């Protein structure tokens, strides 16, 4: 029996123009694309994958697998994620066809995404990773920002880590992903500035910027409202210390 070959394809933050030529060629070459069906609340994510296929690789079929349930407030977070990843791997392996199979990954497969770890659990050795534009790049491009200060470091972390770690602060640059709440409130000075974006690259894109002490509460409410409206939210933000005089000057 021929062993499956797998493409793990980064498809950007949601804008179909973010797909690279390499990504489109791999989508066309694949015998099938596989995706997790996360239910009605996140149907938009599956519909966007279908749209990308219809636009760039209409002859490549899509195989969907129902996503296993996950405890969002576990006593042991790491153990629950490990269990969930294994459950996903088992379901995908059972449904995987022969030939070349592709997975379409939001952003880049190497940054805060579990697809590579799940494929590794399936013991598939023939894997090719195709990089994609990350939401970090989409955010900074949209706001016209240089991500780093001159010669300065960049911290990329999660909302959970920002909330729970006293060692993290936005003095230089802190990019925050996977924030289930409003962790930008956790470490704030008078000069902490936020550039925030949700649903980047899609027709639902929402952008805000300002000093956290000025807009932090309003932004938290906006995020809650958007989650309620769409049933899900993907957001990302950059925190940086900025002199108020530099921002408020005409």
From TrEMBL:
One of its GO terms (molecular function) is precorrin-6A synthase (deacetylating) activity. GO terms for biological process: cobalamin biosynthetic process; methylation. CDD domains: Precorrin-6A-synthase (cd11643). Keywords: Cobalamin biosynthesis, Methyltransferase, S-adenosyl-L-methionine, Transferase. Residues 5-215 form the Tetrapyrrole methylase domain. The keyword Methyltransferase applies. This is Precorrin-6A synthase (Deacetylating). It comes from Corynebacterium pyruviciproducens ATCC BAA-1742. The lineage of its organism: Bacteria, Bacillati, Actinomycetota, Actinomycetes, Mycobacteriales.
């Amino acid at each position: 029996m021929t062993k499956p070959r797998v493409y793990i394809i980064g498809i950007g933050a949601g804008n179909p123009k973010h797909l690279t030529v390499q990504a489109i060629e791999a989508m066309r070459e694949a015998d099938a694309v596989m995706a997790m069906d996360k239910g009605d609340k996140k149907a938009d994510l599956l519909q966007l994958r279908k749209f990308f296929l219809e636009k760039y690789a209409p002859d490549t079929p899509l195989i969907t697998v129902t996503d296993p349930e996950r405890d969002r407030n576990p006593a042991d977070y790491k153990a629950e994620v490990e269990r969930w990843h294994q459950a996903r791997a088992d379901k995908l392996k059972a449904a995987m066809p022969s030939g070349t199979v592709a997975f379409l990954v939001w952003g880049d497969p190497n940054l805060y995404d579990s697809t590579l770890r799940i494929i590794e659990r399936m013991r598939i050795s023939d894997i090719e990773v195709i990089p994609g534009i990350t939401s970090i790049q989409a955010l900074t491009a949209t706001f016209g920002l240089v991500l780093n200060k001159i010669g300065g470091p960049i911290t990329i972390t999660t909302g959970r880590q920002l909330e729970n770690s006293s060692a993290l602060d936005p003095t230089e640059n802190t990019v925050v992903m996977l924030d289930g709440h409003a962790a930008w409130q956790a470490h704030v000075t008078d000069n902490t500035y936020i550039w925030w974006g949700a649903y980047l690259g899609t027709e639902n894109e929402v952008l805000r910027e300002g000093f956290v002490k000025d807009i932090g509460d309003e932004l938290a409410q906006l995020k809650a409202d958007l989650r309620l409206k769409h049933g899900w939210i993907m957001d990302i933000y950059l925190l940086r210390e900025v002199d108020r005089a530099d921002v408020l000057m005409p």
